[in-house]
């Protein structure tokens, strides 16, 4: 489906505002899943990005990262000392 470039720009700004630096470091597969999820959301909203909520964007991100996890999460893991 073709979308109005202004609506795509608005969606991009909403995604960046909602997810921030969590977008960095996504695996290619996760980027594709996120893109597909956002496309589905935009289609359900009849191409009107202004009606897409931050919760929907968070849900799309969760779906994209739930199986493998976000690569940044592995860098934040704490080491447990079993002395």
Could you list some keywords that capture this structure?
83 residues; mainly alpha; 4 helices
**Helix-strand makeup class:** mainly alpha
Report how far apart the termini are: 59 Å
Oligomer, anyone? single chain
- Secondary structure: helix percent: 55-70%
What sequence of helices (H) and strands (E) makes up the elements? HHHH
How many separate helices?
4
How many structural units, i.e. domains? 1
Q: Describe the sheet with the most strands.
A: none
Cα-atom Rg, whole angstroms?
15 Å
Strand content: under 5%
Uncertain parts: none
Mean pLDDT: 87
Shape: globular
Tell me the total number of β-strands.
Answer: 0
Description of the molecule:
By secondary structure, the chain is mainly α. It has one domain. The protein contains four helices and no strands. The longest helix has 17 residues.
How would you sum up this structure in a few lines?
Helices cover 59% and strands 0% of the residues. By secondary structure, the protein is mostly helical.
Write the layout of secondary structure elements.
Elements: H1 5-19, H2 28-44, H3 54-65, H4 71-75
Helix pairs in contact: 1-3, 2-3
């Amino acid at each position: 489906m073709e979308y109005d470039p202004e609506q795509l720009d608005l969606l991009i700004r909403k995604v960046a505002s909602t997810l921030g630096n969590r977008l960095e470091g996504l695996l290619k597969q996760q980027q594709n899943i996120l893109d597909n999820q956002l496309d589905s959301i935009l289609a359900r909203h009849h191409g009107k990005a202004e009606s897409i909520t931050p919760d929907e964007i968070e849900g799309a991100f969760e779906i994209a990262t739930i199986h493998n996890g976000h690569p940044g999460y592995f860098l934040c893991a704490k080491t447990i000392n079993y002395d």
